[in-house]
Design a protein that fits this description.
Distance between the termini of chain B: 22 Å
Largest sheet of chain B: 4 strands, antiparallel
Oligomer: heterodimer
Strand order of the largest sheet of chain A: 6-7-8-3-9-10
Number of helices of chain B: 10
Strand content of chain B: 5-15%
Order of helices and strands of chain A: HEEEHEEHEHHHEHEHEE
Strand content of chain A: 15-25%
Helix content of chain A: 25-40%
Largest interface: A-B, 22 and 17 residues
Number of helices of chain A: 8
Structural class of chain B: alpha+beta
Distance between the termini of chain A: 44 Å
């Protein structure tokens, strides 16, 4: 048993095997024979120009789109062959942050995070225990009862990160999380993601913010026209 | 928490779009009222068929110049016929008595007719009322027989009218049901649109499909149930108001509609209303939310 657990720990949490995806009506594939393997606890940047296929990877990891060819394995589950009714449960092991925050405007910071817990069946008591903790972690202690419009962009993104992380997912996906933020705020958000990464959570971030990539010095996978042109540990934007 | 959440979402959802909700409920109510009405008619026609076919008679009217020998022969033949259950002979006096009863509202007519003018007849009860044709073929050319009348022929006309009304009600129920379905689908779309942010977050964090769909589906079901309740009230109103007036004339013909009959329609109406609304909402969500 111990042996098995040991082995599971070192199995890649994300694996793309020769994945090709062509959207209907598109002239060329968004992803063309892409293979990538990401291990547990890694922090990986996907970089590349707009339309290079970065976001398609995020959508694939969320089981939002399926590849035409190849295999996508997340947390040991083959997403390619996953039935759609299994998707909700699968999503619970993945946190997600977007450029546009996607907060509910009529709910406070606390309620936004608690909502994510309650809709997957956690009780209010659990939320009362866990939500303040995670809001404290993202540096929003004392602002629990502010509404999104009463928070700065950086603070809103912190709420979004708290919501993505409150369920302690194995993977955190971030799709241009700093795209709407100024450089200083972006750095703060990156520090936060870094802290989350240190708890053992695998972080996959799509970005074209060269500053950030250069400062973080983490693994960089560069995509161009649907192909991986660079995969470098401790890389820079290039 | 989840039950409370779902229920409060249902109420909020119905209230948010209250004009549409009312339109939906009214349409559902009319449709279900028509459905209940045609269900009642169906039931009544069934009851009446049982009742009338039990008492139905085939009458063999004799010619006025029939001689006693012919009459006796016919009587013997009928009594030994395996298709015939019971034979009653009606002489002129009895025929006149029946005639008086039947036309008691028209004394002029009764006064104008003398017992002598009415034909004698044999009244037959058949083992199986549907075998009328055999009887007709067998006896129509017998000496002394003037005419053979099957009451069930007359009844079939009455039942034909009632079945026609029933089909008409059912047709209106179906047309209204289509309108109701479209309204339900539209209401659900509007509701889903106004909650698109919540739904997006729920999908993102992995809320189960039923949890996302339940408030919408229940919203439609509640509307369906309210609609069926209103339809029931309309049926009851019909009994109270029409029962005293125009329907009175039919009292002798149609077996009376009891309160029990009306309440018996409620499970049908509520079941159809709830189920059809739920399925419509669910299908709409499948297309609209892709959950």
């Amino acid at each position: 048993m111990a042996l098995r657990l040991h082995r599971v720990d070192y199995r890649p949490v994300i694996q793309l095997e020769q994945v090709t995806k062509t959207y209907p009506k598109a002239s060329r594939p968004s992803l063309d024979n892409v293979s990538v393997s990401i291990e547990k606890g890694e922090f990986v940047f996907f970089i590349g120009p707009s339309g290079s296929g970065k976001s398609t990877i995020i959508k694939m990891l969320l089981h939002e789109v399926s590849p035409n060819k190849g295999r996508v394995v997340v947390n040991g589950k083959d997403v390619t062959s996953m039935r759609s009714w299994k998707r909700p449960h699968f999503r619970r092991s993945i946190g997600c942050v977007f450029q546009d925050f996607r907060l509910l405007p009529n709910r406070t910071a606390y309620e936004n995070v608690a909502f994510a817990l309650e809709v997957i069946g956690k009780t209010k008591a659990v939320a009362r225990r866990v939500v303040p903790e995670v809001l404290e972690l993202v540096g929003l202690g004392g602002k629990e009862h502010r509404y999104p419009h009463e928070l700065s962009g950086g603070e809103q993104q912190r709420v979004a990160v708290a919501r993505a992380f409150v369920n302690r997912p194995l993977i955190l996906l971030a799709d241009e999380p700093t795209g709407n933020l100024d450089p200083d705020t972006s750095i703060e958000i990156m520090r936060l993601l870094d802290r989350i990464n240190r708890t053992g959570t695998t972080v996959v971030m799509v970005t074209h913010d060269s500053n950030i990539v250069n400062q973080m010095r983490r693994r960089v996978v560069e995509i161009e026209s649907g192909r991986i042109v660079r995969d470098q540990a401790r890389g820079v934007y290039g | 928490m989840r039950v409370k959440y779902v229920l409060s979402e249902v109420l909020v959802g119905l209230w948010r779009n209250v004009t549409m909700t009312i339109a939906m409920i009214i349409t559902l109510a009319v449709s279900l009222f028509m459905l209940g009405g045609s269900g009642l008619l169906f039931q009544k026609v069934g009851d009446m068929k049982d009742l009338y076919y039990e008492n139905i008679e085939v009458s063999i009217f004799l010619k006025t110049d029939v001689n006693p020998q012919q009459q006796a022969d016919l009587d013997a033949k009928l009594k030994s016929d395996p298709l015939v259950k019971e034979v009653t002979y009606v002489n002129k006096d009895e025929a006149y008595k029946r005639f008086q009863e039947m036309y008691q509202d028209a004394p002029d007519l009764v006064n104008a007719v003398k017992p002598d003018q009415l034909p004698e007849s044999f009244r037959l009860k058949l083992v199986n009322p549907e075998q009328y044709k055999n009887i007709y073929d067998q006896y129509k050319d017998t000496e002394g027989v003037d005419e053979i009348v099957d009451q069930s022929k007359l009844l079939d006309k009455v039942f034909g009218v009632l079945t026609g009304i029933q089909n008409f009600a059912l047709a209106i129920a179906i047309v209204m049901a289509i309108a109701a379905l479209l309204l339900v689908a539209n209401t659900i779309q509007v509701a889903a649109y106004s909650k698109r942010r919540e739904v997006a977050v729920m999908k993102l964090v992995g809320a189960s499909n039923w949890f996302i769909q339940a408030p919408f589906v229940l919203e439609a079901v509640v509307a369906g149930l309210i609609g069926s309740l209103l339809g029931l009230v309309a049926l009851a109103a019909l009994k109270v108001f029409a029962g005293g007036g125009s329907m009175q004339a039919l009292e002798g013909l149609i077996t009376p509609v009891s309160w029990g009959d009306i309440f018996l329609m409620f499970p049908l109406m509520a079941g159809v209303g709830g189920l059809v609304s739920a399925i419509t909402a669910w299908v709409t969500l499948r297309f609209y939310l892709r959950v």
